[in-house]
Amino acid sequence: MATPEVELKRLGSEYAEKYGFRDPEQYVFKARKGLDREVVEQISWIKNEPDWMREFRLKALEYFLRRPMPTWGADLSELNFDEIVYYIKPTERQGSSWDELPEHIRRTFDRLGIPEAERKFLAGVGAQYESEVVYHSLREELKRLGVIFVDMDTAVREYPDLVKQYFGTIVPPNDNKFAALNSAVWSGGSFVYVPEGVRVEVPLQAYFRINAENVGQFERTLIIVEPGAYVHYVEGCTAPIYSAASLHSAVVEIIVKEGARCRYTTIQNWSKNVYNLVTKRAAAYRDATMEWVDGNLGSKVTMKYPAVWLMEPGARGEVLSVAFAGDGQHQDAGGKMVHVAPYTSSQIISKSISKGTGRASYRGLVKVHRGAHHVRANVVCDALLLDEQSRTDTYPYMEIEEEQVSIGHEATVSKVAEEQLFYLQSRGLTEAEAMSMIVNGFIEPITKELPLEYAVELNRLIALEMEGSVG
Amino acid sequence: MAEHTPLFMIENLHAGIEGKEILRGVNLVIERGEIHALMGPNGSGKSTLAYVIAGHPNYEVYEGRILYKGENVLELPPDERARMGMFLAFQYPTAIPGVTMANFLRLAVNSVRKARYGEDKALTPREFRRLLREKLEMLRMDETFASRYLNEGFSGGEKKRAEILQMAMLEPEFAVLDETDSGLDIDALRTVADGVNQLFNSNMALLVITHYQRILNYIRPHYVHVMLDGKIAVSGGPELAEELEEKGYDWVKTQYAEAAS
Predict the structure, then answer these.
(1) Does A4 fall in a domain?
(2) B104 and A427 in contact by Cβ < 8 A?
C-alpha cells in the first residue's frame, strides 16, 4: 500500500500529464499582486469600459473589502488575497479561428481537445485563458437566428442595452463576499442571448484555463433565454499544478423566461491548488425550466450551490450535482431552490464520493416563501465513501413559510462494499477498475443526463482518480 | 516423460474466517473434461471452499495449496485468477447499481480475453454485441437484460441465469457453480442446466456445489464428493448422489464417523 504522499504524487503526475502542463508566461499585461482601487481602475481602463461599469466595479470593491470572510463551509483560512494577481491579459486580441492564437495558447487548447470537440459536437465555443477570452466562435445559422454568444467584455461594448438591463440583477454585487470580488475584478466569461422561440439543439461550450501561478480568474457569465427558447451551455475548466494557491471565483446569472428552458452543465476539473468559489443563480419565470448539472472533480476547495429562483407559477428548477473529493480536497457543494411563486416545483439530486482524506459536503437550501402554495420540492443526497478515512456530511436547510406544500428529503450514506469489489474482481476487473465501475454506477443517474461525450469524459476522469488509489 | 499436471488440484487445504477454521484438510484433483459434484449439508464448508478458490479477501488460508494449471493461485488476487480462466458462479450475486450488464460484461470479457489470448484479442463493440446476443438466446434470456443494472432487482432465477450468462461470455476453463440450483423452479433449472451443458467441453472442468441431488439429474457429474466438517468424507461416482438422496446425509455421517474411528 502506497503512502498518501506517494498516492498524491501519482495522481498528480497523471493530472499533470493530461491537464496540468503549463506554458511559459508570455503576457501582454499582468497586474501587480494584490487588490485595491488602483488595480480595479486599471482593469477597467485596459478594457476601455463605459463609466457605469467602472462605477459598478468600484462599488463592488467596497462591498468586498467590507464583508468578512464567510465562517461557514470550507476552510478558507489559507487563502491570501494579497498574494493573488487579479488580472492577466494574455493576448492583444481575440481570435475567431484557432490559427490566429499565439502558438503556445493554441497548443494548450489542442492538448485539451477543444478544437476537436468543436468540430464534432458543439454549436459554439469560447475559450478563456487567464483573464481574457482568446477565442470565440458560433455557427453561422445560429447567428442568423439572432443567437448571441460572445465573451462578456465584447457584450459590454456591443450589446450595452441588454447587458445594462440584466447584469448584476440576479446576483447583486453585495450578495456575498466572492460575488462582490467577482463584480469588482470580473473579466471574460460568456454572454448568451437566445431570442424568442429559438432552440439551440447543440451545446455551446466555454472552456476556462488558468495557466499562471497565484492567479485569480473571475469570469462573469450572463445567459438570457427568451420565451419558448432553449439552450444548453457547457463549461469545462483545468489548470496546471502549483504549490501556491490560485483562485477561481465566477458569477453566473441566468434569466429563463416564460416557457423557456436552459440547461447549464459544468465539468469542473481544476488542479488541486485552486480555490473554486462560485456564485451561480438563475431566475425562472412562468412555465420555464432551469437545470443545473454540476460535476465537481477538481480544486482544493469548492464552494458552489447553483440556485434557481422560481419566480412565477409553473416554473421548474433542477440541480443534479456530482462531487468527487479525493485526497486533500473539500467539495462543499449542493444547490438552492427558492420558491417565490405558487405552483412551482424543484428537485435537487446530489451524489458525492469521498476518497482518502477527501471530504464531500452536501449543503442545500429549499426555501418556500409565504404565499407560494402548492409547491413541490424534492431533495435526494447520496454519499459514497470509498474507504475508512474518507468523510462526508450533509447540511440540508429547509425554510418553509407556507403550509400547502409537498417537500421530500432523502439522504443516504453508503460505503463501497467488499462484496461488490470481490464480485467484480472475480470477473477479471482489477481493484481500480472495479472501484471506478462502482463509482460510475453510483453517479449514473446524473451521467445519463449528460451528452455522451461529457458522460464519457466524467467517467474517464473518475477512472483517473481511481488509478493510484489502490496499492 | 514430463509429469502430468492436472487442471485443478487442492492439496491439504486448511482455511477459515476470522481465525475460525472451516476447511480442515481438503484434497481434490480435477482433470479437463470432468464434472465434479460437491455435496454436503449446510455448514459443511462448501461455500467457504468456493470463496477460497475464487480468492475472497475475508477468508484466510492456514495451510495447503490450490494449484490451477500447476500454479499456486492462493497468492493471486481474485482478478488475476479470473484472467487465468477461473470462474465462480455465485450463490448470492451482488447488485451493482447503475452499472449495466452490457457495460460490465464488455470490460470483464475484454480484460479476460486480453490476458488469456493476447492484447489484440479484445472484442470490438460489434463483435461483443453479437456474442452477447447469441449467449442471451442460448439461455433464453430477453435482450433487455443487457441494459439492466447488474443483479439489481433481479429475481432469484434471473440472478442465477445472469451468472451462467457471465460464464458463457467469459469462457472459463475451470468453473465453480455454487448452489446454482437454489431458488430455481424446475423450468428455470432446466434452462440453466441446458446452458451449462452446452458450455461444457472436454477442455474445461466444472465443480458443481449443491445441497440437493436435483441439479445432478441435468448436469451429470463424473464424480461426486461429500463434504462433512470441512473435509471430503466420501467420494464416488454418480450413484453416490442418488444414494445420498435416498438415505440422507446422516447416513454419510455415520459412515464417516465409523471410518474415522
Answers:
(1) no
(2) yes
For the stretch A282-325, pLDDT in tens is: 999 999 999 999 999 999 999 999 999 999 999 999 999 999 99
**Residue A406 burial (CB count, 10 A):** 10
Interface predicted TM-score (ipTM) over 0.90 = yes
Look up the domain containing A238 and give its range.
25-418
A1 touches chain B (CB under 8 A): no
Return the pLDDT at B45: 95
User: Could you tell me if residue A466 is inside a domain?
Assistant: no
How many CB atoms are closer than 10 A to CB A445? 16
Asked if B122 has any chain A CB less than 8 Å from its own CB, the reply is no
Chain B: give the shortest CA distance to residue A441, in Å.
4
Range name among A254-268, A443-457, B211-225 with the lowest pLDDT average: A443-457
- The number of domains in chain A is 1
Question: Span A101-129, mean pLDDT?
Answer: 89
Rounded to a whole number of angstroms, the distance between the first and last alpha carbons of chain B is 41
Do residue A441 and residue B170 have CB atoms under 8 angstroms apart?
A: no
Domains of chain B: 8-260 (3.40.50.300)
Judge whether residue A43 has pLDDT over 80: yes
Q: pLDDT at residue A5 above 60?
A: no
Residue by residue, DSSP assigns A285-335 as -TT-EEEEEEEE---SEEEE--EEEE-STT-EEEEEEEEEE-TT-EEEEEE
Q: Which residue on chain A is closest to B53 by alpha carbon?
A: A426
Cβ separation B107–A444 shorter than 8 A: no
Residue A90 inside a domain? The answer is yes
Query: Which residues are A333's β-sheet partners?
Result: A304, A362
Contacts with A438 from chain B: Cβ below 8 Å: 96, 99
In a domain, A119, yes or no: yes
CB neighbour class for B27 (10 Å; exposed up to 12, middle 13-18, buried from 19): middle
Pick the residue with more confidence: A105 or B10?
Answer: B10
Residue to mutate among A351, A382, A412, A422, with most B CBs inside 10 A, is A422
User: What does the pLDDT average to over A48-77?
Assistant: 95
- B54:A419 CB<8 A: no
Q: Which positions in chain B touch A444 (Cβ < 8 Å)?
A: 97-99
**Cβ within 8 Å, pair B112-A424:** no
User: Considering only CA atoms, which of A132, A134, A143, A137 is closest in space to residue A118?
Assistant: A137
**Is B117 an 8 Å CB contact of chain A?**
no
